[in-house]
Model the fold of this input.
Amino acid sequence: MNEIPSSAMVIVAHPDDAEFGCAGTVARWTKGGATVVYVICTNGNKGTSDPDMIPERLAEIRQTEQTEACRVLGVKDIVFLRHPDGELEDTREFRGELVREIRRYAPEVVICQDTYRQSGANHRDHRICGRVTLDAVYPYARDRLHFPELYNQGFLPHKVGTVLLSGPDEPDVFVDISDTLEIKLQALMCHTSQFGDAAQEIQNRMREGAQVTGGKGGVPYAEAYRKIELRR
Done:
């Protein structure tokens, strides 16, 4: 996948999810002139092994880390929905929040987490976030009579053209991140609260993973997706 969209939205469950999954692609797109918006659905307030950390403080730290990671990547707009970590639910309220942002920013492409992935552990928030995102994209953001309260507030229907599911078991799209891998790693390392002494190990693992994925896609380093094209 070589084309660069004019606009894109990345919807993920936690701060740092996008940096692990698609930051190389995001950096490639922003360097190519795309406008990319992040929607971070939880505040990440449970992701620590520090016995002295409290959820409120961790949420503040993780929002600051995510903001810095977006600066590195060239992402200017970030929406923080601030749901509690580990407590995403498939509700009308959550779906409506995503519909609102999709209609507000009108992205050509949406990247979200693959709700269908079966290999390895798949965080419950990731599964729910991916499923609700797909529902929000189609049909809810598209059709005027869904969420009439949003329509009445000026959030007009929008048809997303493409969804890319990040981290699938069987990808069918590869994005060459050879020129942006180091930017991805720099953005990932902004999430210092998550890594401690393991930062170098994680960088090595991510570099090796991108190389393996690149081998499947015929390029030095890549990120992989499952692509869904939506009817216009």
